[in-house]
Specification:
Layout lengths: L13 E6 L1 H18 L6 E6 L3 H8 L7 E9 L10 E5 L9 E9 L3 H11 L5 E9 L12 E5 L5 E2 L15 E4 L1 H4 L1
Parallel strand pairs: 2-3, 2-5, 5-6, 6-7
Antiparallel strand pairs: 1-9, 3-4, 8-9
Helix pairs in contact: 1-2
Bound molecules: inosinic acid (IMP).
The site of inosinic acid has 17 residues, from strand 5, helix 3 and strand 8.
Length: 187
């Protein structure tokens, strides 16, 4: 744990670091290079799904070497704190029209896929030229909706993770790595 976080979070809260900061940095650089190559000649619209995407988005943008536009959407999912229910609502809509645009949705994690499935259906109805998904983490063990992930940085096991933008109870987003908390913290 970096020293500057020691006052907020102690080692005793973290059960296991799954992905450390240098590994994330390397995969995000790969993702930026792939997007720059695949979307060359276009100006893609990167759509971040708030709030979990923000750390990834900030790092990813700086690894993209072609012109891009940026917008955000916020979707709320109801249900028990660490599980998605599939009942979703748009809390903040896009400010950009996506009709005819090449849209790349940037997600922090795809778990059941329920939230993403809903979001994709809604965005598809707005007639983008293309619509694809890039995610930092893919947790395929619990997938309920079949979703094509054009880009994904890491596949992880069925564990609830925090850090690098991902939260538990709105905490831990500022950890620079992906980790699993001690089980007693979730109860
Ligand atoms: P899904 O609808 O089950 O795919 O989950 C969608 C949302 O649930 C993600 O965008 C996250 O905000 C949240 N989520 C799912 N798994 C985790 C996790 O392991 N840690 C933190 N948030 C998660």
């Amino acid at each position: 744990m970096p020293k500057y976080l020691a006052g907020k979070y102690s080692h005793s809260q973290i059960a296991e670091v799954l992905i450390d900061a240098p590994a994330i940095e390397a995969r995000v650089a790969d993702l930026g290079a792939a997007i720059s190559r695949d979307y060359a000649g276009t100006i893609p619209l990167l759509v971040g799904v708030l709030r979990g995407c923000i750390v990834l988005m900030a790092d990813l943008l700086r690894q993209i070497t072609i012109p891009v536009n940026l917008d955000f959407i916020a979707i709320s999912s109801y249900g028990p704190t660490t599980r998605s229910s599939g009942v979703v609502r748009i809390q903040k809509d896009l400010e950009t029209s996506i009709e005819g645009r090449h849209v790349l949705l940037i997600e922090d994690i795809v778990d059941t896929g329920l939230t993403l499935g809903y979001t994709l259906r809604m965005l598809r109805s707005r007639k983008p030229a293309s619509l694809a998904v890039g995610t930092l983490l893919d947790k395929p063990a619990r997938r309920l909706v079949d979703i094509d992930l054009k880009y994904r940085c890491f596949e992880i096991p069925d564990k609830f993770v925090v850090g690098y933008g991902l939260d538990f109870d709105q905490l831990y987003r500022n950890l620079p790595f992906i980790c699993v908390l001690r089980p007693e913290l979730y109860s």
